[in-house]
Amino acid sequence: MNIVMIGAGYVGLTTGACLARLGHLVTCIEADPRRLLPLRAGEIPIYEPGLSDLVHACRQTGNLQFADPDTPALPEADVVMIAVGTPSDDDGDIDLRQVHAAARHIAPRLRSGAVVAIKSTVVAGTARGVAEIIAEVRGKNDIPVVSNPEFLREGSALADFLRADRVVVGADDERAAKVMEDLYAPLTTQGVPYVRTGTVDAELIKYAANACLALRIGFVNELADLCEAAGGDIRAVSHGMGMDNRIGPRFLQAGPGFGGSCFPKDTRAYAATGRRLGVRQTVVESLIAANETRKEALAQRIVDALSGRRRARVAVLGLAFKAGTDDVRDSAALTIIPALQAAGIQVVAHDPKARDQAAPHLPGTELADCPYAAAEGADAIVILTEWEDYRRLDLTRLARRMKGTQVFDYRNLLCPDRAARAGLTCIGIGRPAPGKDAQQATGAAPAQPRTHHGTRWVEVAASPS
Questions:
Q1: Angle at 143 (CA atoms; ends 174, 200), nearest 5 degrees
Q2: pTM
Q3: pLDDT digit string (tens) for 135-162?
Q4: Which positions are annotated as active-site residues?
């Protein structure tokens, strides 16, 4: 099939490359020449594992090309996908101006019967509104519009597309539904489930899924605070809880709060939709506030620990909102670092992939080339992103570079015992503070959580050693 992708950002570029990998002929339209020219030269503007190689391979086969908005590919398209930005407005709702502008641009150029699929994350009712815009521009109602939300996680997007949990298509038109079934046949014949709904249902599925996942993260972070207060260990508690088949183990890792391009924006839009329709989503509204408060509270822990030290210096390891991506949108670092600086603390930071993306957002922050350089003379280290580079740190080498001994491990990457052997005090999330848990008070060794399988007891590692 001939596919035109409107927008070559993260979603458009990744989806376009994957569709080309399935054998479709894909043209990605990029209006900004500052992005289009590098793409045509083979330069990929984002970091996503495997994406650069996939784009190169699909260009070599001729299945993927990049064009400006006046491309002749539009009149030949069977399906046109809209994958433009939908930024938040001041109320948390999304700004649909780019979606509407794309609809107006393509409307007079489409052949009768082509299908328009909205890939951008949009609020309920958007597909129907876009269909009205296209019909008004064309003067006839011959272009069906479907909702086809994406479920790509940064860091694993190619697998999420090619081995998807499901494909969701919302179509209010039977012929359009059949076209979309044909489009995704290379996946569904391999066993990927296909979910057909109406357009409004598909739009709500996307927001409901992300809100539910964000709620799991918010819940486990509050549970981590309870574990700290009670003297428990979130790693043992979340492991035991996640073994319940009704719950499962995913998204139960405590940390500094969620960030990125999806969860913060989508939960705000979900809540805003509820307010607009007169059915407030109070649970999600509370989650949004708690997520921001958490980042501020974790920053305050560091400030309190370093109070009284003149010209304190902190090394922050991790600027991306999670490992596997260079995305810094709503990352914990963008809240925690300014809070430390406002308290008079000097900050030097490191990230293996997100340095260039973070730099414009962190004025006054020194950026180091490696974790050990960042640790030089530091009173404390803060781990904010779960990169494997940090899990495998040489803690003895790190300790020698530092002036202080505290490591605020906000991803629970490090083994506290291993850190102690290197002369460091590891302060994690959701586990007793060093020297304050009941087991240490009685002189007993802390127990590892264990799982019984038949006649075997299996130790569940609380943290890698």
A1: 60
A2: 0.88
A3: 999 999 999 999 999 999 999 999 999 9
A4: 262
